[in-house]
Amino acid sequence: MSSSPTGALVLFSGGQDSSVCLAWALARHDRVETVGFDYGQRHAVELSQRGAVRAAMAKAFPEWAARLGDDHMLDIRSFGAIGETAMTTERAIEVAENGLPSTFVPGRNLVFLTYAAALADRRGLKSLVGGMCETDFSGYPDCRRDTLDALQAALGLGMGRDYPIETPLMWLTKAETWSLAKGLGGEALVELIVEHSHTCYLGDRKHRHAWGYGCGACPACELRAKGWDAWVADGRPEIAP
Ligand code: ZN
């Protein structure tokens, strides 16, 4: 099955960024599957929105529905237990002395991508797609393209074939991520992502803002609101994918 793999496996959390990545992959690859990771997040809301985003995308874009394959959920709670950060315990979200937000689970993307590569091998999928981004850098060293290039090399050496790690958001601002969404699927895709994707660290889906659901005050909401406002102020432009 893995002798001549095609298609892509999207690291898909149900958040804004990975939802745009899913659309990007569906526009580009003939076969797309998704993978999510349960590492014991304090709030499971983001993961529960995964199905909603997938279903809404398949309904709104029939040509993508034909390409959208299985969804996989991998339990890596033992990794989450090591993290012991604000995402997995009730500790407040704050910026630690090392400059990293307390939501940071060290090496999280290294683990996600290694699991994803093993799954992609089993599923006969060629590339891995992730929403990692350096531009709105939150201090996550495993989001940097240098890190991913090194991991890509390690995966190729250690697993005997290349696993290209595609990161369509790497050099985009949060405002430009909305531009890319519009370029991929017009305002219909933007609206779908606003309505169904989730980003809030506190798991709030009670408060609906122009940019989507969230508490409006946590770092994830602030980042999303700021990006949305900048995109709207700029006249809701689009970027061709
Ligand atoms: Zn929030």
Would you write up a description of this structure?
There is one protein chain. This protein is α/β, with parallel strands linked by helices. It has one domain: HUPs (Rossmann fold). Helices cover 45% and strands 12% of the residues. The chain contains eight helices and seven strands, in the order βαβααβααβαβαββα. The protein has helices at residues 16-28, 45-60, 62-65, 77-83, 108-123, 145-159, 174-196, 219-233; strands at residues 8-11, 32-38, 68-75, 127-129, 165-166, 208-209, 212-213. It has a five-stranded parallel beta sheet, sandwiched between helices. A two-stranded antiparallel sheet has the order 6-7. Helix 1 (16-28) packs across helix 7 (174-196), helix 2 (45-60) crosses helix 7 (174-196) and helix 5 (108-123) packs across helix 6 (145-159). The relative contact order is 0.17. Zinc ion binds at residues 200-202, 204, 214-215, 218, 220-221.
Number of strands: 7
Q: Given the helix and strand composition, which structural class is it?
A: alpha/beta
Stretches where pLDDT is under 50 for at least 5 consecutive residues are none
**Count of DSSP H/I helices:** 8
SSE succession: EHEHHEHHEHEHEEH
Give descriptors for this structure.
241 residues, alpha/beta, Rossmann fold, 5-stranded parallel beta sheet, two-stranded antiparallel ribbon, 45% helix, binds zinc ion
Please specify the SSE layout and strand pairing.
Blueprint lengths: L7 E4 L4 H13 L3 E7 L6 H16 L1 H4 L2 E8 L1 H7 L24 H16 L3 E3 L15 H15 L5 E2 L7 H23 L11 E2 L2 E2 L5 H15 L8
Parallel strand pairs: 1-2, 1-4, 2-3, 4-5
Antiparallel strand pairs: 6-7
Helix pairs in contact: 1-7, 2-7, 5-6, 7-8
